[in-house]
Amino acid sequence: MKAALKLSKYLKPYRIWATLAPLLMLLEVSMDLMQPRMIQRIVDEGILKLDMAVVTQTALLMIAFALLGVIGGVGCTITSVLASQGFGTDLRGALFRKVQSLSFGNIDELETGQIITRLTNDVSQVQEMVSMLLRIMVRAPLLLIGSLVMAILTSPRLAMMFLGLIPLISLILVLVIRRAYPLFSLVQERLDDLNTVMQENLAGVRLVKAFVRAQHEIKRFGDVNNNLMGHTIRANLSVAVTFPAMMLILNLGIAGAIWFGGVQVTVGGMQIGELIAFTNYLTQTLMSLLFVSMLMMRLARAQASAMRIEEVLVSVPRIGYQPQVGNDFTPRGRVAFENVTFSYDPDGHDPVLRDVSFTAEAGQTVAILGSTGAGKSSLIHLIPRFYDVTHGRVTLDGVDVRLLDEATLRSNIVIAMQEAVLFSGTIRENISFSRPEASDEEVIAAAQAAQAHDFIMSFPDGYETQLGQRGVNLSGGQKQRIAIARALITHPKVLILDDSTSSVDVETESRIESALENLVQPGGYPLAGRSTRLVIAQRISTVLNAEKIIVLDDGVVAAQGTHQQLLGSSPIYREIYQSQLGNGGLAHGAA
């Protein structure tokens, strides 16, 4: 229950509605409790004494009480919905903001499918719990206590039955809840698995179709779907005994009340109206317990969801910011790796980079080459602090990046990734994503430098062309060029191109490279200072003109230097060059 209590703070802005709901429910319950008394009066004072005035008067009172009960019930429903929906909206917003604040390491650990489940299904479970707490969970205890008190006032002798019935029901509830809670936790975990498979399949639907793996994916989805079904069935079966057991106890209680009450009526110790009223109060008491049992089952599931939500909310970003350099820090763009070792494992095991050292001077173009898995992307992710180094340090103009404010650091360092992620919206909105205030001239200038302007203008709506989800209506090369334009519009001091032209033809790539060399501001004025560029590329032709080339091999800097230097000194570089350009290219390069 601790997790659920911690989440209750999100209900505070709606405390007026959350307070009114129980009060209105109290009105409804009070009116419900009056009905058996009215029936008792009709039977004992009206029907048995043939007094129709009492019957009529009491019936009118019952109608008035029922109308008041309706007002209380409807009012409770409205206020509880307002409170629970507001609670759910704020909680979902807090979760989303928390996810945005987490580092890449936290996201890797939580996984996308789990985060989606917690933002949707888990929040819905807790939101529904709040709604029920403000309505049924208020009604059931109030009706339980009120009916019990009224039953005792009606017949203290028959009320002794509760001493046996209530402990028995409570024991059943405790046993069922203890068994159900871990099972419902497993149901939510299986739902995570289902969302993960579905998210992966939708993201890679083209790949699935290209390799004719639809049947394999259907089977994989079927496995996790059946697993979810199995766990859900087991969880629900664990509570299936509750309702029949409660109904058995309820019917036994009613039978006992009628038996012993009938004896009392026969000997003159009790009136028929009193027996009818007591039976009604007994039914209300046990039905209230039945509702409580059903709610406790839902509460067990909601508690499992609350714990999963709380796990995200209390997550501490692995990358913390305690800036020791002012926001007026304006770097020139010199990037240095000083004996950097990095591991994705928080304990530092199995490092993917080991003792990496090199420098990219301000305005210099540095290329990073290496085979798949050499650690190229891991290396460049350390510069904007997507991850933190395990040992050593990365500096920007001699300042450790860990000492810089997040906004200061990432406003000076921009990365264009191989997988161009675009958002639904217009092309203009995607290019100006990092600078919404950018003028049309700046957007066009960035697009021209990225060689995207011509194909954008070929669309009927030009820069106002609406993109589908993830830019589905663009080719891979077009998406990459828009992503590059999005990076260029910020005029960064450090520009990182992570194989961001892999889907672009060689001629277009060459034009992009030329444009980057001569990038100007809108109006034709050269930018103040050329960006430092770190380029990851699979095509060696992309990096031949780089001022420095870093060759990574299994997380270690195997060699560094210019193209001509590496041809003579690095067997790895020479092998890469020869494999792509052939012996003729090697001879030409050596010359």
Molecular structure report:
The chain is an alpha/beta fold. It folds into two domains: 10-313, ABC transporter type 1, transmembrane domain (ABC transporter transmembrane region fold); 335-590, Rossmann fold (3-Layer(aba) Sandwich). It is built from 20 helices and twelve strands. It has helices at residues 2-7, 15-47, 52-101, 104-110, 112-134, 136-154, 162-203, 205-210, 214-240, 242-266, 272-313, 376-381, 406-412, 427-431, 440-449, 453-457, 476-488, 506-517, 563-569, 571-590; strands spanning 335-342, 353-360, 365-370, 391-396, 399-400, 413-416, 425-426, 466-467, 494-498, 532-536, 548-553, 556-561. Strands 6-9-10-3-11-12 form a six-stranded mixed β-sheet. A four-stranded antiparallel β-sheet has the order 2-1-4-5, with no helix packed on it. It has a two-stranded antiparallel sheet with strand order 7-8. Strand 4 (391-396) and strand 5 (399-400) form a beta hairpin. Helix 2 runs parallel beside helix 6, helix 7 runs parallel beside helix 11 (272-313) and helix 15 crosses helix 17 (476-488). The N and C termini lie far apart (75 Å).
